[in-house]
Amino acid sequence: MGKTKKNSATSGKGKTVAVNRRARYDYQIEDTLEAGMMLVGTEVKSLRSGKASILEAYATEENGEFFLINANIPIYEQAANRFNHEPKRHRKLLVHKKELAKMIGMCRRDGFTIVPLSLYFNDRGIAKINLGFARGKKAVDKRNTEKERDWKRQQSRILRDKG
Description:
The chain is of the alpha+beta class and 163 residues long. It has a single domain, classed as Beta Barrel (Small Protein B, Chain: A). The protein contains four helices and seven strands, in the order βαβαβββαββα. The protein has a seven-stranded antiparallel sheet with strand order 1-6-7-2-5-4-3. Strand 3 and strand 4 form a beta hairpin. Belongs to the SmpB family. This is SsrA-binding protein.
């Protein structure tokens, strides 16, 4: 018997739970990094049902460790109240020491922030988050991005109609 392919939104990744599409519009992404998260059981159950939001989330350093702040993982309704988690609690990010040093260095640089780009389950079923080292765009940069996107869309229409 052959292996079955899992449901994947992007190559090499498992099921995508949440995507922060606004991050690529508001920030210029310099580099990306994959990190694990420390989650409790009800958070994993809630993620598996596809309920999460990382639109307002960011990562920051606290006492030499990195935490994901403001990520909303809603409570799991089927669990009893005493087993549920707080929806917007700080979640510790799990990275290697070398990556942690890189994150601290980038975070302390002027104008850099760490924003989550996507939250997904990898092929082994472990929850991972894709982080981006980002620098904020100004309004002019955002307008230029929109102009380029519109021009590429028009080019593809013209080529499609002629071909």
